[in-house]
Amino acid sequence: MIIMNYILMCLIFGTTFLGIKIGVDAGVPPFLSAGLRFLIAGLLLFGFMVWKEKTPLWLLFRKEMFFTGVCLTFGTFATLYWAEQYVTSGIAAVLSATGPMMILVIQGLILKQKENRQSFIGCMVGLIGVTLLILPSFSIKLNPFWMIGCLAILIGEVFYATGAIYTKRVVQKFETVSPIALNAAQMMHGGILLILLSLFTQDIQPEKLLSPASIGSLVYLTIFGSMIGHTIFYWLVSRTNPVFPSTWLYISPLIAVILGVIFYDEYISWLTALGTLTIIVGTVLVNFKWAVFQGIKSFSFKK
After folding, report:
1. Diameter over CA atoms, the chain
2. Whole-angstrom Cα distance, residue 160 to residue 145?
3. Selection from 162, 161, 183, 159 nearest residue 171 by Cα
4. 129 φ, ψ to 5°?
């Protein structure tokens, strides 16, 4: 059951980058699309948890939920959705996989936590991968928006890394509250902020929101990406450990790149392919020893 759910989660998260790309290309304002996705998903999940009396309503008004929503949802996905106007879904997925490396950098440089040599080597390999990924843009006709889009995703991963580190403290503080409720509450805060950003910065055309591609993208990302995918993730965390489910970050870039090439006619050069594999190798190196140890530990015989 654990392996089946893990495979399903990887497939869902690996397809969300293409789902975002389809919605953005259909003309839906990126910030509005992201905001609606997370606000609706958060409302449905949180409403269900309140109805089942598994979470208190006051949780929504805690500052911790706001700060987590700013980092994990608002900062991460505002940059990702905006960038996918200019970069392919495959490249977006690969750059998003740098999140664990961002966590390592913040822990080492800011929090002064000592990291092992293998993790440092993984960061260097990942940096080389990002360089290889960006190299194709250095041509006679340089596309500045492609470069800015790649940079925006990396900035978004800094938000994600900060939020992930902060979330550890939040989960410990609210240990009696379901992680699903915590995730739903932060999604609502992040979704509201994204919608407000869209209202002030983007031209919203209602007719584009009603196109089949726009509706399909929103429904898929809300139900499968935000509700089912994240629910499976937290279920896996409760059954194993936080590390094992997080290894979807190593698999989703390959799924996203392949889907983009097959179903969306996205171009992939040999440098892009090499950069993709290099980033994945670097990301795995950063967490390999810990992931293997926790994985073996979690699959040991239990009564």
Report:
1. 64
2. 22
3. 183
4. -60, -45
Structural tokens at position 1: 């059951």
Residue 15's alpha-carbon distances to 34, 88, 221, 252, 254, in angstroms, are 15, 13, 9, 8, 10
Contacts with 248 (C-beta within 8 Å, 6 or more apart), sequence order: 6, 9, 10, 13, 14, 233
Q: Are 174 and 64 in contact (CB under 8 A)?
A: yes
DSSP at 226: I
Q: Which two tokens stand for residue 144?
A: 């500045």
Per-residue model confidence as pLDDT tens for the chain (303 residues): 788 888 898 899 889 888 888 888 888 888 998 999 999 999 999 999 999 888 889 999 999 999 999 998 999 999 999 998 888 877 787 788 777 778 777 877 777 776 667 667 776 777 687 767 666 655 444 578 888 999 999 999 999 889 888 887 888 888 888 888 988 999 999 999 999 999 998 887 777 788 899 999 999 999 999 889 877 876 776 667 555 676 676 677 777 777 877 877 766 677 777 877 887 777 677 656 555 544 444 444 343
What are the structure tokens assigned to 199, written together?
């209202």
Closest-CA residue to 145 (of 230, 83, 223, 103): 83
Number of other CB atoms surrounding residue 199 within 10 Å: 13
| Residue the block writes with tokens 């900060």 | 162
Rounded to 10 degrees, the C-alpha dihedral 157/230/26/81 comes to: -10
Q: What is the 3-state secondary structure (H, E, C) of 132-178?
A: HHHHHHCCCCCCHHHHHHHHHHHHHHHHHHHHHHHHHHHHHHCCCCC
Q: What is the pTM of this model?
A: 0.79
Round to whole Å and give the CA distance between 126 and 282: 4
Residue 278: closest CA among 133, 153, 151, 138: 133
